[in-house]
Amino acid sequence: MVSIGGDNDEVGRINCKNERNHMKLAFFVLAFLPFTLPVLTITMVCSVCSAQSSLTDQPFVDLLGRANAGDADAQYHLGVRYEIGEGVPKNSELAAYYTKRAADQGHSDAQFNMGIKCQEGDGVPKDVSQAATWFRKAAEQGHPAAESNLGSMYYTGDGVPKDYTEAAKWTQKAADFGEPLAQFNLALMYFNGRGVHQDHAVAAKWMRKAAEQGLASAQYWLGSLYYRFGEGVPEDTVVAYMWTNLAAVSKEEAKPIRIDLEKSMTPEQIAEGQRLTRE
Questions:
Q1: Cα separation values, 128 from 124, 132, 152, 169, 243, Å
Q2: For 150-175, what is each residue's pLDDT tens digit?
Q3: Among residues 4, 88, 85, 92, which one has the least CA distance to residue 41?
Q4: CA 11 to CA 8: how far, in whole Å?
Q5: Residue 218 and residue 231: Cα distance in Å, rounded?
Q6: What is the pLDDT of residues 51-79, one digit of tens each?
Q7: Quick check: 99 and 91 in contact, CB under 8 A?
Q8: Alpha carbon distance, N-terminus to C-terminus of the chain
Q9: In degrees to the nearest 10, what's the CA dihedral of 206, 251, 256, 43?
Q10: pLDDT above 90 as % of the chain
Q11: Which residues is 83 bridged to in the sheet?
Q12: Non-local CB neighbours of 8 within 8 Å, separated by 6+ positions
């Protein structure tokens, strides 16, 4: 499954330094590709968002005063602090209380975080339908991680009616923004022809975009495609070795493929693949 991080300083993205965990939710999808490729999965972003702002380093007492006075941004940041235990003891219930107050005022990052909390039952009752509602509120404001999650929920029918067209619509929005997990999911939709016309070349394009952002599962997929299948890309052992080598840094499943590749490559090809990996 995918473990994904995002940019540290960009509002609406995931801050892995402040991530509570690296939970992965994956849902199996029927594969229509020949031979044996890595398992097709649609994956969700499952970490609390912590955007940077002028309140990031605000003293706790000042932040609490502003939050209790109704400042939505202060409420959001206070919720994050209680969630991760930054300067205060961790408290999921207080995190949910302040996050919801901000979310009710339309704060998109708080709405996304409420979606995660409802999905996981963290400080609030577990309710995937309510999670979808919060993701939609944030997605309608252009929050890329919320768009990606809402697309995944429509794909699987988790908390919303299954609808591949809606899944593709929301996933496309997040992918266009540059969310790597959405780019990965969109590639899978194009591979399967779910919600979009099946197009392996377009699928490979989106998979490459995710891989170039360091998403190991996308790198693993590209390596497999270049290695044997030529679905949307030409067969190319050296390029396959490069992507597999990159994936193997954090993905154990890639290591056997790399070993198989090396058995069929000349020393010169291996050297070239290693050179491409370093670039």
A1: 11, 6, 12, 20, 36
A2: 999 999 999 999 999 999 999 999 99
A3: 4
A4: 9
A5: 14
A6: 555 566 788 999 999 999 999 999 999 99
A7: no
A8: 26
A9: -50
A10: 70
A11: none
A12: 15, 16, 17, 52
Q: 102: closest CA among 84, 77, 125, 121?
A: 77
State residue 43's pLDDT score.
63
Residue 260: pLDDT above 50? yes
The verdict on pTM exceeding 0.90 is no
Q: How big is the chain, counted in residues?
A: 279
Question: 3-state secondary structure string, the chain?
Answer: CCCCCCCCCCCCCCCHHHCCCCCCEEEECCCCCCCCCCCCEEEECCCCCCCCCCCCCCCHHHHHHHHHCCCHHHHHHHHHHHHHCCCCCCCHHHHHHHHHHHHHCCCHHHHHHHHHHHHHCCCCCCCHHHHHHHHHHHHCCCCHHHHHHHHHHHHHCCCCCCCHHHHHHHHHHHHHHCCHHHHHHHHHHHHHCCCCCCCHHHHHHHHHHHHHCCCHHHHHHHHHHHHHHCCCCCCCHHHHHHHHHHHHCCCCCHHHHHHHHHHCCCHHHHHHHHHHHHC
